[in-house]
């Protein structure tokens, strides 16, 4: 969700944010530690993590939460990261069959 300043402050103060879990259809809580971890990495600011294992990233081209450019930057910095761009939104629900196929192929390729 897109949060205004007051909502960010409330999340920080309470320690959790209630969201809709699309898997269960129920409310779920996201711990504020998620934001603290993300700030440590701060992809938008250039603090990229070192990716030392083969990694598969899926990104929806219609994602209005995370810019696909960030995933593209990650791939440009790490030779063992593969990006699959999908004609989908942030949730990638419409792409589930392709996610399964790509993941299966990726795991087979890397000996899993």
Short synopsis of the structure:
The chain is α+β, with helices and mostly antiparallel strands and 112 residues long. It contains four helices and four strands, in the order αββαβαβα.
Structural class: alpha+beta
Give me the count of strands.
4
What helical percentage do the residues reach?
Answer: 25-40%
Radius of gyration over all CA atoms, rounded: 16 Å
- Distance between the terminal alpha carbons, to the nearest Å? 34 Å
Average residue-wise pLDDT: 88
Unreliable stretches (pLDDT < 50, length at least 5) are none
The largest sheet, given as strand count, sense and whether it forms a barrel, is: 2 strands, antiparallel
Query: Quick one: overall form?
Result: globular
Order of helix and strand elements from N to C terminus: HEEHEHEH
Discrete helix count: 4
Strands ordered across the widest β-sheet? 1-2
Share of β-strand residues: 15-25%
If you had to describe this structure to a student in words, what would you say it looks like?
- The protein is of the alpha+beta class.
- About 40% of the residues lie in helices and about 20% in strands.
- The chain is built from 4 helices and 4 strands; from the N terminus they run H-E-E-H-E-H-E-H.
- The protein has a two-stranded antiparallel sheet with strand order 1-2. Strands 3-4 form a two-stranded parallel ribbon.
- A hairpin with a 6-residue loop joins strand 1 (about 15-20) and strand 2 (about 25-30).
- The model has no long low-confidence stretch (mean pLDDT about 90).
